[in-house]
Specification:
alpha+beta, 2 domains, 8-stranded mixed sheet, 4-stranded antiparallel sheet, 16 strands, 24% strand, globular
Length: 389
């Protein structure tokens, strides 16, 4: 298992094997038999979404996606690949850091007093199946944000602690993916319990499976499998290497932290914010954005009240509201805050970039704003070179 700090559990004997479709089916059964709630990708309402799975039959076998700025479409594939798709509208954040969490409720007693009940965090023994390398990094970034400092979030910890992570290396990047630029993929480099590399070639449909923890090794031992062979290892490595060469986007070849810091007054901020609707879609789909606010609600009688924590966005005009007005009153200032924090000042707070190169913010922006395009534009304006292709 991996803990809430993102570190792998103390390893036992790491193993490697080859699974076929039967082995993938068995993986879901074994995890459920161990009492885990298995969550993975499935096709619903014209998208590949994350949901609880009862069997591997619910995985998106034979489905892929077409992505572009402001555009998402599912498409049929000729093979039966289960994980040959790019990031969808959800991330694992939806399960670890849910959109709404009740914090307490209160009821008025007949004597006029109040009974207040604090909401205890509900622990869920999750098993996440199909975690992309970029999303695996995003989970570890959230670990640092939500549990790495003095103010640990019990709601996050209750869901994250003990979660079983089945990573899947990326062999089919989308047109908006840029994980290579961010150093987050397409290969996985640790922090998982099991890692799969899916292969569909003349030798058949199969998965190279590696364990990364003691429990991962134990689960793999329960699955129908065969020894890893050289041909499968070579095919798996080749597929991942080929994916690295087919990234649809890239960042400029410069230190992004410095680029953001030194260009706060660039004219490009006016250009991009002329297109920005301040809708906050990019923060909602981002796998690392974590900001929240609280709100109190009451019933019509006024005898029952609740406090809820819910996701918030730095694009919301009230997000930076202080006495006298908002600190960031214009779309320009709000977009600049989001991008410079994500690519720059996140390092100062948490020791890494806040962007993992998944491309969700590009796909789900209704006006097709592309943060890689904006970074290249800032780079050009700063006079440091031409945009990479």
């Amino acid at each position: 298992m991996t803990d809430a700090s993102g570190a792998a559990a103390v390893p036992g004997r790491r193993t490697e094997a080859v699974l076929d479709r039967e082995g993938l089916d068995a993986l879901v059964r074994v995890l459920r038999r161990r009492g885990r709630t298995v969550v993975g990708p499935t096709v619903r309402d014209g998208a590949i979404v994350l949901d609880e799975l009862e069997s591997a039959d619910e995985l998106p076998h034979g489905w892929g996606v077409e992505l572009e700025a402001g555009r998402y479409r599912t498409r049929r594939r000729e093979d039966g690949a289960a994980f040959a798709h790019s990031a969808g509208p959800q991330s694992w954040k939806s399960f670890l850091h849910p959109e709404r969490v009740r914090q307490w409720s209160a009821d008025r007693r007949p004597d006029g007093g109040l009974t207040v009940r604090e909401e205890e965090p509900r622990s869920v023994p999750y098993a996440f199946l199909g975690v992309r390398p970029c999303d695996l990094r995003a989970i570890h970034i959230l670990d640092r944000v939500m549990s790495g400092g003095r103010h640990r979030d019990p709601a996050y910890l209750s869901r994250r602690t003990g979660a079983f992570l089945v990573a899947v290396e990326c062999t089919e990047p989308g047109a908006t993916c840029f994980c290579v630029s961010m150093g987050t993929g397409p290969a996985v480099d640790g922090g998982y319990d099991l890692a799969l590399t899916e292969i569909t070639d003349d030798a058949g449909h199969r998965f190279l499976c590696r364990s990364g923890s003691q429990e991962g090794t134990a689960v793999l031992a329960e699955l129908p499998r065969r020894s890893a062979d050289t041909a499968t290892r070579t095919a798996a490595a080749g597929a991942v290497d080929a994916a690295a060469e087919r990234m649809g986007r890239s960042m400029p070849p410069v230190d992004l932290r410095t680029l953001m810091r030194d260009n706060l007054e660039a004219a490009r901020w006016d250009d991009v914010t002329a297109r920005c609707l301040s809708c906050g879609n990019c923060t909602m789909v981002c796998p690392t954005c974590f900001c929240t606010t609280t709100e109190e609600v009451t019933d019509l009688t006024g005898d029952h009240a609740e406090r809820w924590r819910r996701w918030d966005s730095c694009y919301d005009l009230d997000f930076s509201l202080l006495h006298g007005g908002p600190v960031r009153a214009t779309p320009r200032s709000r977009y600049r805050q989001w991008l410079t924090h994500k690519l720059g000042t996140w390092h100062d707070q948490f020791g890494s970039s806040g962007c993992v190169g998944c491309g969700r913010c590009i796909v789900w922006c209704p006006t097709g704003i592309d943060l890689t395009e904006e970074a290249h534009a800032l780079y050009r304006e700063a006079g440091r070179g031409e945009s990479a292709p």
